[in-house]
Amino acid sequence: MTNMKEQLYAVKQRAQEALDLATTSEELEAVRVRFAGKKGELTALLSQMGKLSPEERPVIGQIANEVRGFIDAGIRAKKAVLEQAELNRRLEKESLDVTLPGKARTVGKQHPLNKVLDEVKDAFISMGFSIASGPEVEYDYYNFEALNIPKDHPARDTQDTFYFSPEMLLRTQTSSVQVRVMEKTQPPIRVISPGRVFRIDEVDATHSPIFHQIEGLVVDKGITMAHLKGSLELICKKLFGPETKTRIRPDFFPFTEPSAEISISCFKCGGEGCKFCKNEGWIEIGGAGMVNPKVLAHCGIDPEVYSGFAFGMGLERMVMGRYGVDDIRMFYENDVRFLNMF
Ligand code: DAH
Description:
- This protein is of the alpha+beta class.
- The chain folds into 2 domains: 2-93; 112-339, Bira Bifunctional Protein, Domain 2 (BirA Bifunctional Protein, domain 2), CATH 3.30.930.10.
- The chain has helices at residues 2-21, 25-36, 41-46, 56-93, 112-126, 140-143, 175-184, 225-240, 293-298, 315-323, 336-339; strands at residues 130-131, 137-139, 168-170, 189-198, 210-220, 246-253, 256-265, 282-291, 307-314.
- 3,4-dihydroxyphenylalanine is lined by residues 173, 175, 215, 253, 256, 259, 286-289, 310-312.
C-alpha cells in the first residue's frame, strides 16, 4: 500500500513538472493524454487497485481522486493561461494602426456618351421634340425596304449588315425608327431617336461594329429645307457653343430628297484647320435631308399635304470632337482613368 501511495504522489509530481513545462495548447494536450488519458499513467496505476485489501482500497481511492482532481485543475488553469497568452500574441500581431491613411472610395462617373446624349435630349426636348425608340433587332423592311432601299440597292453596300435571316437583321441605322413612328402617328411629328446601331466593321481608332446614332424627324404642313438648316444650327450652337458654324452640303440618301451632309466648324481650331479636323476646319457629324415623298407615302402619310425633314448624327463623332478623344475604343473599354477625365 505504501508503494501504491508513493507511486500516486510520484505521478502527481511528474504531472506538475510537465504542466510547468508546457508552453503551447498542443503540449498541454500531450500532458493530459499522458497523465489523465484513458491509457495514461493514472489509469495504469489504478488498474492495480484489485490487488489491494478491502481496507486499503478506500484510502488509496481517495488519494487517487485527489491526484486526478489536482491534474484536472492544473490542466484547466494552464489552459486558461495559454489561451490568454495566445490571444495577446494575436492581438499584438493584428494591431490596428489608426494613423494609416484610409481606403479611398471611388465614385462612379457618368459615361461621356451618356453625358452628351443627355444634353442632346434636353436640347431637343426644349424645342418641342419627344423621344422615340425602336428595336435593335429589326426587320429588313424597316431598316431598308421602307426607307426606299430595295434588296439590290447599292446603298446597302455601304452598310455591311449583320443578318439573322433574309428578313431579320441588327439595325444599321436609327432611320428604321422613322418608319415605325410615321406608321403609327399622323403629323405633326417631332421626334428624336437615339440608339445603338450595328455594322460589320474591323475595330480601329475610328471604327467600331457597335456605335450610336441620334435620329431626328419632323413632319408637318409646309416644312422646308430652311427648317432643317435652322434647327440644326440652333441645336449645334446649343451643344457645341455659340461660335459653332453649321455647314450642309449635297449628299445622297435614298430616303431623303434632297439629301445633305452635316458638318460643324472644328471644335479644336474653330475652322482654321488642325490635325483633328485633318486641316479641313470642318467635322462631319451626320446626314440629313427632306423626307423622300415615297417614304412618306409608304408610311401612310400624304406627301401632297405634308413634308418633313430628317437627320441622323453619330454620337461618338460628336463626343470625340467635343472632348478631343482620338480613339473610339476608349468609349467601350470602361477604363476608369478615361471615364474620370470627364
Ligand atoms: N441613316 C444614315 C446613315 O446611317 C444617316 C442619315 C442620313 C439619317 C440622312 C437621316 C437622313 O435621317 O435624313 O448613314
